[in-house]
Amino acid sequence: MNYQKILEEIKEQIQTELPKGEVASYIPALKNVQANDFAMSIKLLDGTSYNIGCFDKKFSIQSISKVFTFSMALKHYGKELYQRVWYEPSGNPFNSLVQLEYEKGIPRNPFINAGAIVTTDSLLSYYKDKNLTFNEINQFINNLSKKEISFDEEIFKSELESGYRNQALASLMKSFNNIDNPIEETLETYFKHCSLMMSCEELASAMLFLANHGVDPLTNEEFITAPKAKRVNALMLTCGHYDASGDFAFHVGLPGKSGVGGGIVAIVPKKMAICVYSPRLNEKGNSHSGTKALELFTTLTDLSIF
Ligand code: DON
């Protein structure tokens, strides 16, 4: 298949979509982007890459980081993790509070904010120190992407100052004894990993292990076991786009994870990892053109899992 030609065709067809949607503004520093940017990268299991648009431009990975932190938590904990965070779709927005109250502080899944705050808290308990925990998260992603990545101080501070809903979620869960560490430390670590900056090309490389049963196909290093990689993919499919997860499965048909920075990663099992970037979001907080581009991709290649 000529993937470069397919990317070119997607870019051409997506042009009329690029002005649609709005850049995230509830974290003020996220507004400082080129709203009509578009990029897409594909990384095959044999290491071949195909790229289009501003594929080497770094953007705020936001909720895509939850894939890395959940993978790390799965590595360190067994089934006991699911006593603190479930694996069912929430059917609610990513920052919703309502379900958490009547479900006694146990978040529905690790990809909504509450669930990711719990997995970050579990990593803090494991490593016992907030700086070490963040270093380990960085190291995990560096090892996956074979690049040195860093976080954006301005975006981190902006979210620290404006993250009222996340503070509410963490406080509510603490009241149900589902946060073990001081709320400030858990949130600081969570906001820092959301503020990590990566390009489409780097993210496609970093996600390749999920297309290959948890093993880096280029070095044979096992990052998580095959059963655990299966769980991460399953949750990306059912929960990776919050209350638009059904819509994403319906139109795209791949395990995927979005972030309010405008990135989406998607996995074609046993074949490739894909990343798309376009910062204007739809009403559910997922990249508008990114979703359309991935839909075009599975239509043109017939590579949906269904
Ligand atoms: O906690 C937040 O609200 C952000 N740091 C991450 C949210 C996010 O990326 C949702 N994605 N579509």
List keywords for this structure.
2 domains, 306 residues, 3-stranded antiparallel β-sheet, Beta-lactamase, binds 6-diazenyl-5-OXO-L-norleucine, 12 helices, alpha+beta
What do these coordinates show?
With 306 residues, the protein is of the alpha+beta class. It has two domains: 3-62 and 197-300, 3-Layer(aba) Sandwich (Beta-lactamase); 63-194, DD-peptidase/beta-lactamase superfamily (Beta-lactamase). Helix content is 44%, strand content 12%. The chain is built from twelve helices and ten strands. The chain has helices spanning 3-14, 65-76, 98-102, 113-127, 130-145, 153-162, 164-175, 183-194, 200-206, 226-239, 245-251, 288-301; strands at 22-23, 39-44, 49-53, 59-60, 150-151, 196-198, 256-258, 263-268, 272-277, 280-281. The strands form three sheets. The protein has a five-stranded antiparallel β-sheet with strand order 3-2-9-8-7, with helices on both faces. A three-stranded antiparallel β-sheet has the order 4-6-5. It has a two-stranded antiparallel sheet with strand order 1-10. Helix 2 (65-76) packs across helix 4 and helix 5 (130-145) runs parallel beside helix 8. The longest helix has 16 residues, at 130-145. It is globular and about 55 Å long. The model has no long low-confidence stretch (mean pLDDT 97). It binds 6-diazenyl-5-OXO-L-norleucine (DON). 6-diazenyl-5-OXO-L-norleucine (DON) is lined by residues 62-63, 94-95, 113, 159, 166, 194, 258-260, 285-286. Keywords: Acetylation, Hydrolase. Its EC number is 3.5.1.2.
